Amino acid sequence: MPAAVRILGMEPADRETVTGLPPGIAAAREELTPMLSQYADLCAAHEDALVLFQVGDFYEAFCEAAETVARVCEVTLTERSDSTGDYPMAGIPIDNAAPYLESLLDAGYRVALGDQVEDAEQASGLVDRAVTEVITPGTVVEDDLLESGTTNYVAAVAADERPGTGSDGDDHGSGRRGVGLAAVDVSTGECLVTSGDADAVAGELDRIAPAELISGPDAPDFEPSDAERGWTTHDHDAGAFDRRTATERLEPYLPAPGRRFDADAELRAAGAVLAYAEYTQGDDGPLSYVTRIRRYDPRDRLRLDAAAQRSLELFENRGLGASDTLFDVLDETNCALGRRCLERWLRRPLVDADAIRSRHDAVGEVADRSLAREGVADALATAYDLERLVSRVSRGRADARDLRSLHQTLAVVPELKATLAGADGERAANAAGTGPADADDPALPRTDHLRDLRERLDELTEVRELIDDAIATDPPQEITEGGVIREGFDGDLDDLRATEREGREWVADLEASERERTGIDSLSVGHNQVHGYYIEVTDANLDRVPDDYRRRQTLKNSERYVTPELKEREEEIVGATERADALEYELFVDVRERVAGETERIQGLADALAELDALASLAAVAVERDYVRPELREDSTEGVAIEGGRHPVVERTEESFVPNDADLPRGSVAVITGPNMSGKSTYMRSVALAVVLAQTGSFVPAQAATLPVFDRLFTRVGASDDIAGGQSTFMREMSELTEILHDADADSLVLLDEVGRGTATTDGRAIARAAAEFLHDELGATALFATHYHGLTDLADERERVFNLHFTATREDGDVTFLHRVVPGASSSSYGVEVAELAGVPGPVVERARDLVAAEEAERGRGASGVEADGAVDGEAPSDETTDPDATDDGDASLREFLAEEASGARDEDDPDASDSAPETATEGDRAPTADADEGVAAGAPRDLAAELRDLDLARMTPIEALNALHDLQSRLDDGG
């Protein structure tokens, strides 16, 4: 830092005064020194960024910006004083800038780096500086600021210029506009483009999860579904979204860009996002490594909205096991390329059956060939991130070590191709009879998918040899100070290095020869950056100094000299060194540019390596965790059939796991009842995850699985709220339910858990029933519908494709054991009080709850038997609602009615004056029918059913035995005995 500084107290700066030209500088702009004036010019040109200005070995900020840097980065606030005034100043070291830049990004600032773009030693006057990079959350390219193996998108959205028909050809309705979305990962060059209505684009944004979003002047507002992990949003230059401007921006990337997109909004969003990316990289022109601009249709992938990704915990687990996610289970990748590829696959599973089977083929072959799987893993473990390497090469920011990393990665390609072909080790194992029984086929790989992948493994021999010939094996970090180019690569450089080396050898020998010539044993020869080479003699020996010595420097106890011959040698050495360093830099830049010319081929290789790593990861998981290949349904009308299905995450974290079957006909609704903690949610998620895994290309955790291909997967599992967004738990639930009921169709899988539990029982039960009926009657979606409203189980009697499932539990000596086993039929109890006791609710609360439940059940029992009941519990007023799900109408109602009718008939025989009508009970569902209303039941039912029901010893039965006995009696009653 400059010497004329002093430490200041620090006050928070207003955010608006931090970016752009600080007011403290603007007020004295006409009087500023040349350096501060240069700083002011850069600030004025970057109004949306905090400018960090290179001064020596530090990046400095001044005035209000300095206060922010000092506070956010926790560095000392000092002051720069000159003839024009005193200016607060704070700086961060350039060679360790990454953690400070990360802090500024986390605080929400964009940072413009004003670097010296001229050699300070060669500058005449003020060193020229320019903004070489604008660092924003979505355009970070430095490895120190990026997590390995992740994507980091900046996205742009633009609306169609007129409402009406969207890119998909559908009429979006009056006044609705199509929206274009484009996203680019500046660190790798990947660029994605799509469009749809606002809801579809919102879903894609949640799926892509950009770090930053820029909006066109006419675009809708998009808010992340997860505010904690969402993107930052800001307006960008509206002119960048102009069609002509966007077209001109795209022309270096795409020929005839106007014909490459399905919608005008796509073109404008793509042009704008690339303009922004170029701006952040220093406005040096097109980003030549952005060669993969891919337009896609969201309908070509299994659509998983943000709610589904959260509830299925694909990438994030907010519970105690924060690292326990589906991605963590699948991630056995060996390099950053494969990790990114696997994440993309999991975010956007396939919907094309042939493409899914092709991946399954490849995973199966790699799983079968253990030697090949291990060989692929070992080779890829040494591979570097080619996508980020080649982007640095293309931008001219790669150093010699980057090129050596590229060379090391290219060197594994021949090894991988040999491994996939079964060369050497695998064929030898097969010949010796120790290889897999089915792996002796000489035509390896066996599957079309792996054969194609092997063909795509471009060895790039000329690039690998160029780097090996040109770049030193262990080059220095700096590329301007020599030691980068390998000897023998360039003759002129070798001559210069020889001259330099000979000169240094002559100097090294000079000390011995001069000691012998002068007789001064303490004479020494040295060098420094200021005075160059010298001969040093102590004051005691000055009388022996030869006449040809010329004094160069006087020290306290000695003198330093130079001879004409030493001076000449010095000029030769220095000249040769400078010329050699300059030539080395030129040669390195030329090599880097030649490598950059193969960017597309390197990116193609990167894609192949990434896919191979992802496939090997899925194969390793399948082998290690005993997954099976799912069979895809040929008939689109067939449903889900899973034998012994398991939850892939839960089984990894629990000591034991109870597998369950799933048989869900297409378009069916499974109403699932059972106690809390019994496994309903885990079961539902395991079915959904099997679908996600299968369509990703993975095998699934089960003994066997036959699955259809779904196009959308919806979930509403678990309770959450959005207080910041003004939504209660119930409002959030209803909002998500609304999206499901609007968007699901016959090709969708829907998971709903406890719909309606966030409001009053009557309302909640009505909403749950209506939603289940709508799924069945109107949408035809395949659905798993978990509920504590037992009255919903009678939908199985009313709807053709509705059936009941429940989770079993046993009660012994007052203790409840959850068996986590799903079986057909409806549950007899929710065991809510027992779950409360297991959770540690205080004993008095548990006992009081038991008393209240027993009292209410006694009231209902008396009502069902025709005994007068007022519906009150412990003095409470009767209510038309109940908090007990078992108090609703359910499948046992007609049995109770039959018993009431039998009791009424008995009273008629004993007392001819008895009333024909049964007394009213506390709830409408338990009210006994009149003789007229249920005459058919009374007339047609055999009298022995009542006796059988009364003789049942339910207390000695398990819940499932009791339920089966009652179900049998109910069926006989329905059939007339």
UniProtKB/TrEMBL annotation:
One of the record's GO molecular function terms: ATP binding
Residues annotated as binding ATP: G674, P675, N676, M677, S678, G679, K680, S681
Skewed-composition ranges (Basic and acidic residues): 226-236, 893-907
Transmembrane segments: none
InterPro entries membership: DNA_mismatch_repair_MutS, DNA_mismatch_repair_MutS-lik_N, DNA_mismatch_repair_MutS/MSH, DNA_mismatch_repair_MutS_C, DNA_mismatch_repair_MutS_clamp, DNA_mismatch_repair_MutS_core, DNA_mismatch_repair_MutS_N, DNA_mismatch_repair_MutS_sf
Ranges of biased composition (kind: Acidic residues): 871-892
Pfam family, one: MutS_I
Domain DNA mismatch repair proteins mutS family intervals: 748-764
Ranges for region Disordered: 214-236, 856-942
Gene Ontology BP term (one): mismatch repair
Keywords attached to this entry: ATP-binding, DNA damage, DNA repair, DNA-binding, Nucleotide-binding
Protein family according to the UniProt entry: Belongs to the DNA mismatch repair MutS family.
Function: This protein is involved in the repair of mismatches in DNA. It is possible that it carries out the mismatch recognition step. This protein has a weak ATPase activity.
Protein name as catalogued: DNA mismatch repair protein MutS
Organism expressing this protein natively: Halorubrum californiense DSM 19288
Organism taxonomic ancestry: Archaea, Methanobacteriati, Methanobacteriota, Stenosarchaea group, Halobacteria
